[in-house]
Design a protein that fits this description.
Two copies of one chain form a homodimer.
Chain A: H1 13-21, H2 24-34, H3 40-47, H4 51-63, E1 67-73, E2 78-83, H5 85-89, H6 91-104, E3 112-116, E4 125-129, E5 141-145, E6 156-157
Antiparallel strand pairs in A: 1-2, 5-6
Chain A binds a DNA duplex (20 and 20 nucleotides) through helix 3 and helix 4.
DNA sequence: CAGTATCCTGTCCGATACTG
DNA sequence: CAGTATCGGACAGGATACTG
């Protein structure tokens, strides 16, 4: 949520994302949900989160369309919170955070890794351009802003604020 | 920082990352710093952040080793905050958030994109395994935890809490 | 089991004013 | 220009008790 803060009204897609997952509990909840923990008590125990807080965060994630509240038992009424397609799509962000944490904040070595279950080989996560396969860390890649930055002409490098001081 | 919260003491690399970049201001500051805005007033104007808050966040980012406070003028004393190698390495997370935001929270279309400056072509960011080039969204890839998850044997899928209820 | 209700503390964060 | 000092409000988040 973080709707009360100055995150609101920004155009930058990063800021837009942060409006929904800018609170760290939400990220940890999504991590668990994507790992298969979808029930209230699983999440609560696994995360060590206070129930009231969990309720609140789950509601926000459902509202944001990242989780779906689904009935899995009629009597008694029981719900589970499963990732939507949008929630699934958040996986890349999680993996990026995972790789970053492993590289820089894991003195005793990686505690969680991404593994190919067929080969058993540990993956080495990198962001690339899907079309060319080239890593986006290549300095040739830049962030470009402007109206409909999707067009291939008339784009402007983000080496200065978009509109003369305007916020992204 | 977020050091006072229950983020502390977790082993999960995602949680570890969040300890340092879990606050959304930090992420936006890194975004700007990586885009070339390294001076206090650039950041302040560009972000619309209160000066005291900016000071605090910059200090945290420097302490976390993501930014380096560097003297660029002697008289008067002036500092700039440039991304360290570790800060550079955060780029993938930013790009993941950017792509996610563009895909799901940009009703009017992408406002910022990653572009190959040589070809002018807009990149399509995906997380892949560097070795094989395969997208990590492939269901064959799973998150694995355990002591030194880097080893290729004796790993356990994270389909249950690591140590019987223990937090990640 | 899956929450709701309530209280309390810390601090995020904005606003404003001031300094070399 | 690059910050520091201070104030106040809003809420994140923990703890605990209670309900069907």
């Amino acid at each position: 949520m973080v709707a009360h803060t100055s995150l609101e009204g920004r155009e930058c897609p990063i800021a837009r994302s942060l409006q929904h997952v800018g609170e760290w509990w939400n990220i940890l909840i999504l991590r668990d949900a994507l790992a298969g923990f979808t029930r209230f008590d699983e999440l609560q125990r696994n995360l060590g989160i206070a129930p009231a807080m969990l309720t609140k965060r789950l509601r926000a994630l459902v509202e944001a369309g990242l989780l779906e509240k689904r009935l899995y038992s009629d009597r008694p009424q029981r719900f589970e919170y499963v990732p939507t397609a949008r929630g699934e799509d958040f996986r890349d962000v999680l993996v990026a955070l995972l790789a970053f944490g492993n590289r820089h904040f894991a003195p005793e070595g990686p505690s969680v890794t991404v593994v190919d279950t067929r080969t058993g080989i540990v993956a080495d996560p990198v962001m690339v351009d899907a079309a060319s396969g080239r890593p986006l860390s290549d300095p040739a890649f830049r962030w470009v802003s402007g109206p409909m930055a999707g067009s291939q002409t008339r784009s402007r490098y983000v080496m200065g604020p978009p509109e003369g001081g305007q916020r992204w």
